[in-house]
Amino acid sequence: xxxxxxxxxxxxxxxxxxxxxxxxxxxxxxxxxxxxxxxxxxxxxxxxxxxxxxxxxxxxxxxxxxxxxxxxxxxxxxxxxxxxx
Length: 85
Fold this sequence. Notes:
mainly alpha
């Protein structure tokens, strides 16, 4: 049992994991974990109205595709107007 315990402690030190005092899980970012899991801080997305835990991640993953498509449409409009001349 001792070698196993030493290996686990070494892994914790390498990864710099913290143990949550409320649920005993090993967490990289303890402050964020407590807010998101135990305090349930949710923010409302101004674009779609969905309540999410991480607004930055939501915007990047959900609305990025929308922004990318808008950029493509603008480029296509510019290309088609150039080809008309």
